[in-house]
Amino acid sequence: MTTKSQSTVGTVVYLADRTVSPPVIIAVPALKGFSNIGGGKAKKVDKSNFDSKGVNESQPGRSDPGEGSGEIVYIKALPGHQKLKKLYEAGCSGLIDHVDIYVGDGDGTAPPTLVGVGKVLTPPKVGSPGATWARSGTIGTGYISTFAPKKADDDIDRADFAIQWTGTALTQVKGEAIANQY
């Protein structure tokens, strides 16, 4: 039996840039990898007491949404790389407190859109009525916590970047019906 898998080719990180008016969506090109896409870890709350029978007792507490990290082949002339750096700097200086993020999987090519008066970042969908997701992906909010260009001997320019998720990230699966999340 062959295990089904999905290629990471075509995965794109999109960010909503609200430092300009009207807001725009930027794609982060030349992505080498990205991990912790909306994952997290629940705090372990110790509820052991004198009545515990020889073992510690615990329960899950609040979830820490974690930090996603990635690497790009850094090309300073690319607008997506310039914007990623500017969003990092805007967050550090207090000009913005969060960025809307969509990580689109390689099973589609449609980008997210900004919808409505509030310009809500919305994953790509098809069909109306009875809309379904046009691409698998993860959407959430966070801030750019790291942007670190690096040079190595006999290599190409690269940069590490990280996104601190600030809430629950929602995952969509291509072809699933939209359940009024957006």
Per the CATH scheme, the topology name is Pnp Oxidase, Chain A
Shape: globular
Average per-residue pLDDT, rounded, comes to 88
Low-confidence spans = none
Main features:
1 helix, two-stranded antiparallel sheet, eight-stranded antiparallel β-sheet, 182 residues, globular, 8% helix, single chain, mainly beta, Pnp Oxidase, Chain A
Overview of the structural elements:
- The protein contains one helix and 14 strands.
- The chain has 182 residues and is mainly beta.
- The protein has a single domain, classed as Roll (Pnp Oxidase, Chain A), CATH 2.30.110.
- A hairpin with a 4-residue loop joins strand 8 (113-115) and strand 9 (120-122).
- It is globular.
- It starts with 11 loop residues before the first strand and ends in a 10-residue tail after the last strand.
- The mean pLDDT is 88.
What's the layout of helices and strands?
Blueprint: E1 12-17, E2 24-28, E3 31-35, E4 41-46, E5 58-64, E6 67-73, H1 79-92, E7 99-104, E8 113-115, E9 120-122, E10 125-126, E11 132-133, E12 137-150, E13 158-165, E14 170-172
Antiparallel strand pairs: 1-2, 1-7, 3-6, 4-5, 6-13, 7-12, 8-9, 10-11, 12-13, 12-14
